[in-house]
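User: quick one, sequence for these C-alpha cells?
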C-alpha cells in the first residue's frame, strides 16, 4: 500500500477500513544470510538499504523489545551536518542529503523539517572558533552562515541577549538543519525494509554468538539459535554488553542522557537553538511542546532513566538562555543510554571475528546520522569495504592514533 493524500481521502470516505499494519510479524527462520542485531534507527536503516539498495535477501533484524523502543524513539530529534573535521563532515552531509529525500524514498511521513539550527556565540574567541567551523563546512560544500547579534535578535527576540555573564554576540546558522519525527523514522525504515522482504523479529533478544574457527556462524537468542552468514550489531547503548558476548571489549562507555518536553505553547522557537556557554539545546515540536536537553548525567549506567540533579542543571541552562522558559510547565522527561566512544566519533567497521560487524559509538549524535549510518553499514556488510564517507570510523583508530575528536576534549567520553 502506498501512502498519499489521495489514499487518506479514500480511506476517510470508506470508513478507514483499508489501513493495514505497517509490517508483518514473522517467526524467525532457522538461517539468514544477514542478521542485524538491534531494531533501532541504525539497524532498521541498515536492513532497509541492504535489501533495497544492495539487492540482498534473507535478512532479519532481531530486536529484544519492540521496534523503536531504544534511543531512536527517545532523542530530541535534531538533524544537522555542521561538523568541522574532514573525518566527520562528508559523512554527516551525506546523511543530510539522505534526510532531504527520505520521505519520498520510503513513502512515509517522517516530518523532516529543515527549520535550521542556530549555535549561539557568547565571546570573541567563540566567534573565531565558529567562523573556522563555518568556513570548513562551506569548503566541504555544505551550508553555514555567521550571524551578528542583531540578526540573531530578529530570529529569536526572546533570548537573554544582555545577560552579564553570557551576552549573545551572534550565531552560526545552518539553515538546512532541523528536526525529524524520531519514531516516524523508525517506522518508515521498518515498513520499507518489511516491504523489501526483511523479517523484523521483535521480542527476540540476542543472548550469545556462535563463533567457530574465528568466524561467526549465528546467534543464540531468546527464541532459539539462528544461523547467519554475516551478523551486524547495531545496539547503541548496549554495544559493550552485546559485544562482550563475542569476547570483545569496546572503547565505549555507556551513559544516561535525558530529554524534556514542556506543555504545548504557541509557535515560539524558529528552529533549533543551542546555548554556547552551557549545554542546552531547544526546539519546538509540531504539537507546540518545547523539546530540550543538556548534559549527560555524568556516571556510567545502563538504566534508561535519569536523575534530578541533571534536570536542575538543564533547567538552569534554559533559564540563563531564555528566562521565559521558567513560565512553561514540564510535561515529560525520560532517559536513554548513550554509547560514548573515546573520541566522540562512531565506529562502523569489521571486527576481528570474520563475518561480525559493528556499528556503535554514536554518543549524542546518532539520530542525525541514521540514514548515512544505515547506508554505510549496509555498504560494509554487502561489499566488505567501507563506504567512502565512513572510512575513518575504524575500530582500531584508538590503537593507531587516528582519532576523530570533533570537540577536542581528548579521551573523555562523558565530555563528547
Ligand atoms: C535523550 C536523548 C536525546 C538525543 N538527542 C539526539 C539529537 O537531538 N540528535 C541526534 O543526532 N542524536 C540524538 N541522540 C542520540 C541518538 O538517539 C542515538 O545515537 C541513536 O538513536 C542510536 O542509534 P539507534 O537508533 O540504532 O539506537 P536504539 O534505538 O537504541 O537501537 C538499539 C536497539 O538495540 C536493541 N538491543 C539491545 N540489546 C539487544 C540484544 N541483546 N538483542 C537484540 N536487540 C538488542 C535495543 O532494544 C534497541 O532497540 C539522543 C539520545 C538520547 C538518549
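Assistant:
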Amino acid at each position: 500500500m502506498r501512502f498519499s493524500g489521495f489514499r487518506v481521502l479514500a480511506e476517510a470516505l470508506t470508513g478507514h477500513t483499508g489501513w493495514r499494519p505497517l509490517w508483518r510479524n514473522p517467526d524467525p527462520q532457522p538461517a539468514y544470510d544477514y542478521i542485524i542485531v538491534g531494531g533501532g534507527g541504525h539497524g532498521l536503516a541498515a536492513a532497509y538499504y541492504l535489501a533495497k539498495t544492495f539487492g540482498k535477501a534473507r535478512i532479519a533484524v532481531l530486536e529484544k523489545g519492540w521496534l523503536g523502543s531504544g534511543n531512536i524513539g527517545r532523542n530530541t530529534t535534531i538533524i544537522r551536518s555542521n561538523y568541522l573535521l574532514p573525518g566527520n563532515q562528508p559523512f554527516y552531509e551525506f546523511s543530510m542529503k539522505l534526510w532531504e529525500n527520505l520521505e519520498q524514498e520510503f513513502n512515509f511521513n517522517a516530518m523532516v523539517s529543515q527549520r535550521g539550527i542556530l549555535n549561539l556565540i557568547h565571546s570573541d574567541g567563540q566567534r573565531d572558533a565558529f567562523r573556522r567551523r563555518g568556513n570548513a563546512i562551506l569548503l566541504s560544500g555544505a551550508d553555514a552562515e555567521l550571524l551578528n547579534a542583531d540578526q540573531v535578535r530578529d530570529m529569536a527576540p526572546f533570548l537573554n541577549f544582555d545577560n552579564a555573564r553570557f551576552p549573545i554576540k551572534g550565531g552560526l546558522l545552518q539553515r538546512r538543519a532541523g528536526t525529524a519525527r524520531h519514531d516516524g523514522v523508525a517506522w518508515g525504515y521498518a515498513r520499507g525494509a518489511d516491504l523489501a522482504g526483511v523479517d523484523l523479529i521483535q521480542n527476540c533478544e540476542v543472548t550469545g554468538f556462535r563463533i567457530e574457527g574465528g568466524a561467526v556462524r549465528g546467534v543464540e537468542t531468546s527464541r532459539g539459535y539462528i544461523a547467519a552468514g554475516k551478523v551486524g550489531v547495531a545496539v547503541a547503548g548496549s554495544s559493550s554488553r552485546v559485544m562482550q558476548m563475542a569476547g570483545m571489549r569496546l572503547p565505549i562507555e555507556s551513559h544516561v542522557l535525558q530529554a524534556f518536553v514542556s506543555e504545548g505553547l504557541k509557535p515560539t522557537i524558529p528552529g533549533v537553538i543551542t546555548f554556547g556557554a552551557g549545554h542546552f539545546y531547544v526546539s519546538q515540536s509540531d504539537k507546540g511542546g518545547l523539546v530540550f536537553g543538556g548534559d549527560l548525567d555524568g556516571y556510567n549506567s545502563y538504566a534508561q532513566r535519569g536523575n534530578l540533579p541533571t534536570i536542575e542543571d538543564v533547567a538552569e541552562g534554559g533559564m540563563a538562555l531564555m528566562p521565559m522558559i521558567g513560565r512553561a510547565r514540564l510535561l515529560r522527561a525520560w532517559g536513554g543510554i548513550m554509547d560514548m566512544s573515546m573520541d566522540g566519533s562512531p565506529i562502523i567497521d569489521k571486527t576481528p571475528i570474520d563475518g561480525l560487524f559493528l556499528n556503535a559509538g554514536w554518543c549524542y549524535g546518532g539520530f542525525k546520522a541514521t540514514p548515512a549510518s544505515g547506508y554505510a553499514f549496509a555498504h560494509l556488510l554487502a561489499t566488505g569495504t567501507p563506504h567512502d564517507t565512513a572510512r575513518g570510523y575504524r575500530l582500531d583508530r584508538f590503537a593507531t592514533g587516528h582519532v576523530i575528536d570533533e570537540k577536542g576534549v581528548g579521551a573523555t567520553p562523558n565530555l563528547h
